[in-house]
Amino acid sequence: MLKCTNKTMKKHKMLLVMVSVVLFVACADKPTDYLALTPPNENTNDLIEARVADLLSKMTLEEKIGQMNQYNGFWDVTGPTPQGGDAAKKYKHLRKGYVGSMLNVTGVKEVRAVQKIAVEETRLGIPLIIGFDVIHGYKTISPIPLAEAASWDLKAIKHSAQIAAEEASAAGINWTFAPMVDVSRDARWGRVMEGAGEDPFLGSQIAIARVEGFQGDDLSKFNTVAACAKHFAGYGFSESGRDYNTVDVGTSTLNNIIFPPFEAATKAGVRTFMNSFNELNGIPATGNKFLQRDILKGKWNFDGFVVSDWGSILEMQAHGYAKDGKQAAELAINGGSDMDMESYLYVEELANLIKEGKVDEALITDAARRILRVKFELGLFDDPYRYLDEQREKEVTGKTEFQEAVLDMAKKSIVLLKNENNLLPLKNSGQKIALIGALANDKTSPLGSWRVGADDGTAVSVLEGMKAYSGNKVSYSKGADVSVGKTEFGTELTINTTDKSGFPQAISEAKNADVVVMVLGEHGLQSGEGRSRTDLGLPGVQQELLEAVYKVNKNIILVLQNGRPLILNWADEHIPAIVEAWHLGTQSGNAIAQVLYGDYNPSGKLPMTFPRNVGQVPIYYNYKHTGRPTLPGQDVVFWSHYQDVENSPLYVFGHGLSYTNFEYSDLKITVNAKERVTVAFSLKNTGERKGKEVAQLYLNDMFASVTRPVKELKAFELVDLNPKESKRIEFTLAKDELGFFNNEGDFVLEPGDFKVFVGGSSAAKLEQKFELK
Ligand code: NOJ
Q1: Count of beta carbons in the 10 Å neighbourhood of residue 370
Q2: What is the best residue among 191, 231, 274, 313 to mutate for testing ligand 1's pocket, by most ligand atoms within 8 Å of CB?
């Protein structure tokens, strides 16, 4: 019997690689032989490397550059082929093998048509990699990423990415431009909806969950897609929250706040990165060598590829960094961007730049290698049509299991912000409920922003969700529109209307009701890319509507639908119950109804701080002490504070209530010899209902060579507890978790005093000190 030691295994693997390559090379006369000869499921790294190397050796410079070129879908593939203009040029490029990837081509029929050209009409038959923004689902939409982050439920988030991958891959998509792992502290920035909020630790855990969910354990499986960590880097720190704006951040913030989720995604094996539109400290990210070559491909050893953002290579001219397109291409490739999304510059300029000696050909080979590697990993060379099965697409799209999963995710994402006198949950019968607000009857808005694959009108509205509960009498009135105009997706939107004609009916219905449920907030397309706002109040006349209704009935449950933290001072002061329901996707209305009626006990916690006013932004829980920290209630002038509002936010990071209550006690810290710190405490459900609590642990490194935040989230756990049940929770912090990056970018662990805080939010009060020797 053959005994497999490590050594013999290595030998066999090498032999297999050599035999495969010899066979493969010997028989590969025709381009498509690459496809036929490759043994399926032999995607070991060595074999892939050998196959990539062999293919590269056969490619012309132009073909390698072609792999680095990505075009948006440019013609209706079911119609006639393009005859003139840019489309005809792109078509020609496609047939010559000068296109490596396409985006926004979806559905088996469409993808098959473009893939067929790449595989059957080009010299080498190299398949395309098809990319798409599957940000929070493809057709079946899960909550916006910020909402999912509010669940703090990594398993559920991973599952959400898994089903998105399954549905998208069934439509021929190989690659999603997600997850967005940009940390942001600025609610004005519309894209906060697309990320995991303000915290680098939570953000890193979620980045890992999403990458693992999209990619699975084997990229070549037909139900997985390659993921893309974006936008590298600093995009979430766009000045004044204005999209695409300048980013200027110091080393400490870059290393300790911005980078961690990207590094976590790299370690989780993310296969692609996208750079960003912004400049970072004077250098556009797209041409930024430090980011892409030194950090990503150097320090982190990333061996996948980097795609530019849409036209971001060209935009380096507008930045004032490149004098023309040619120089932009030079700066981008030298800076580490491997693929050009829609700037058309690599395909036009790179070959000349090489001839002129401005770009080293080795960089082109390296970029093409990275791209081909991922294509091999996806199994595209084994069968380029493997993702293209119309029957599967039909069976998979929108299937029941997906609906159940997005419903579950939606419920988990809801955050109960306030619940005075237990107004919630609603009684099941005998009540007159006035349901008010245009959003309550909207079947598109709950899909949120960045759901390009989904069809308008496919979400369950709150009104529909409430109908499942027939014991109460529910009346509906719109009160006011949310929002007038067309978005780029063609959806009609009435933004910031001043029309109050719906007020009287809403008021009269509220007068006659026992309870009023008001669904207010932002339309799904009021957040997202290019949708920055300086006023974070309720858009239009919604605030007036709320106050008018309040005058006649104080029993209001405010259900918020929004893609970012809003300013809610008045509501917090007057409205007894507030539910943060974000944009929850396809099953939105069902999830909201189940939470309102108490069939689901909410457990979500805010992944972003909710400010008291826009003047406080950027605002975040892990701020620095300053030399003049102001204590609450301290009535002094020369301390770090505002004259008109207190420093604290309205709702802190990590805040979220339940229909039951939790109590934290008996904190005990043990530091053992291996510099492991064990933090144990008791958590009790003191109420009458079963509930789930996100127990959170924060750390403060009290004195360090580079000042540390007042608190940093270091661990959390979702704990299910029956009424009156108590559990001992234990977190172990390893050495790594106590350190930080210094200003040289080195990770350091400094001995000294630390404080630990445990609780149900970043305002955790139970604390204890320990010393690390
Ligand atoms: C621009 C966005 O910034 C990016 O996130 C997205 O993936 C691309 N467009 C492609 O749609």
Answers
A1: 22
A2: 274
